[in-house]
Amino acid sequence: MQRRIWIKQLSSAALYYNPIVKYASLFSGDDALNKKMFGKDFAWGVSTAAAQIEGAATEYGKGKSIWDEFSSHKGKIKTDESPEKACDFYHSYKTDIALIKQLGFTNFRFSISWPRIFPDGYGYMNQNGIDFYNNVIDTCLELGITPWVTLYHWDLPQALQNKGGWINREILLWFSEYVHICANKFGDRVKNWMVLNEPLAFTSLGYLLGIHAPGMKGFKHFFSAVHHAALCQSLGGQILRNNVEDANVGTTFSCAPIYAYNENNKHNEAVKRYDAFVNRLFLEPSLGLGYPIHDLPVLKHLEKCYKSNDENKLAFDFDFIGIQNYTRYVVRDNIFIPYLHGLQVPPKKLGNDTTDMKWEVYPDGLYKIVKQFSAYKGIKKIMITENGAAFHDGLDNGLIHDNQRVNYFKEYLAQVLKAKNEGINVDGYFVWSLLDNFEWAEGYRPRFGLVYVDFNTQQRILKDSALWFKDFLK
Ligand code: BGC
Hints:
By secondary structure, the protein is of the alpha/beta class.
């Protein structure tokens, strides 16, 4: 008897301490999900962004970006950190891309740093920058990984910000030159393109609320930044289509389904206003539907930014739309909030788990937003270009047992599958993100990676979530 108890204790202790056994438990049980269910053409990938991973921010001829400048001011980044070194992807791209391959992903989404190509925003071109992205692209192709390139993931050249950045209409010219160069230099090998990353996020956080670079505030700035970004969205699409043979042209949107606090009609009205702002502001003009002014009348001010014929320049028939979803919003009517007249219910009050970003874990939300987007006639194809979660990752004998993240992926992927099984044209899923990285105004604290990064040594450690994907993608 004594011995039996002893053996039982020993084996449960071994189960607890033996990382291999513990990790194996991630795969046990009724893991209903498998890769085959998504179909053989479904694209599996990881997503990243230049400013968040590259480092070498002031080297090899790169110009300053608005994030280099913003982070140099005390208090702008919560931890007073900067993107200067980040994950040093600039020097470790070969081994990092090999990691992508090792995990079984066959698609890599990364962005091009505009100030690495044009240090002054336009004019003089930095050949080192061109060479770097050529090397990244060629490494991907040698390893059988398809590159997916985002043209603008928030790192505007500071030289352009000094002239007003997104609030200066000349951005159409600057952006056009930048897109032409990228299309001409890389378009022979890169076929999958995204014009902008989450235009609502960079215009609202950077030009309305001032909590992201360049730190500008106010509705006037916001409306001109929105209108110019919406014009660049379609302009960029057109340039890619005209200059890249067989291009698959998309753009990406941050989006979150909006739920009413309860069935009271006034909350439902707040839902409409939020939805117009959060989900429809950039999508609908791209589809030729104009800005959603009817449901959020303050957007009428956007028309003040119009120059002749602008209303006809906002649409572009993208080959795919990138959905980037992490959570949902629950809102209630509140007359004190300007224009939106609604307030988000704090996620921690909703009774579900929250992530390190204090975002509610709500897998059904991904299904709901995919369904909402797929109802638009003009959307040909949906790709999930970002989904993932930041959780506290503790090192445990050199390993990271990020079970919460594993569960997050399992639950969100089940919702993608549900949408797919209903016949919705969703054709790919990209994890945010490959590596822990520079999480903008939050600094390096929130860790979104499948791969843990020790920012002092640049050592990479595969988290259990990376190993889970490796097994899933086998
Ligand atoms: C952005 C990423 C960001 C992630 C997590 C997305 O909004 O595209 O750059 O790191 O969300 O916040």
